[in-house]
Automatic annotation (TrEMBL):
EC number: 4.2.1.1
Gene3D superfamilies per record: Carbonic anhydrase (3.40.1050.10)
Protein name: carbonic anhydrase
Top-rank taxon, per record: Bacteria
Residues annotated for Zn(2+) binding in this entry: C36, D38, H89, C92
CDD domains found in the cross-reference section: beta_CA_cladeD (cd03379)
Keywords: Lyase, Metal-binding, Zinc
Organism field: Streptococcus sanguinis SK49
Length: 165
């Protein structure tokens, strides 16, 4: 049995818990969370969020990219969010490589030249949060009155630590 088949079985049980209530499209807390795709980070549980509470935007490293800003603009301008939380984590895969080495690896393995691509690796997780918060503040698409906060999630303990600018 594939993982997908297992997911479909689990979904049947989830449907019973979910119920039939129609949640509003706008997130209840008016918060959008920018975070990593890491499977050790269950954002809703870690932050005490329920269905419909917040937008959770994920990518490799939880980095602020052009597409992340696109999603945030829609989140704010169409769906009413007024706060952004940048949440990175310890022991991130984006800390395990450098662009030059990774692009060389991809060229060797896939035969594709991606030397111009920035995969946004980092070495210091707190600094990466600060960089991403600064990118959000500098974006003309993110209004100045949007509250922006940052934190680091510890994958070993589940504890979050605030990152000051």
């Amino acid at each position: 049995m594939s993982y997908f088949e297992n997911f479909m079985k689990a979904n049947k049980a989830y449907v019973d818990l979910h119920g039939t209530a129609h949640l509003p499209i706008n997130p209840k807390t008016k918060v959008a969370i920018v975070t990593c795709m890491d499977s050790r980070l269950h954002v809703a549980q870690a932050l005490g969020l329920a269905l419909g509470d917040a937008h959770i935007l994920r990518n490799a490293g939880g980095r602020v990219t052009e597409d992340m800003i696109r999603s945030l603009v829609i989140s704010q301008q169409q769906l009413g969010t007024r706060e952004i939380v940048v949440l990175h984590h310890t022991d991130c895969g984006a800390q395990t490589f450098k662009n030059e080495d990774f692009t060389a690896y991809l060229h060797k393995e896939l035969g594709v030249d991606v030397s111009e691509q920035d995969f946004l690796p980092f070495t210091d997780v707190e600094e990466s949060v600060r960089e991403d918060m600064a990118l959000l503040r500098q974006s003309p698409l993110i209004p100045a009155d949007i509250k922006i906060s940052g934190a680091v999630y510890d994958v070993d303990t589940g504890r979050m630590t605030v990152v000051e600018e």
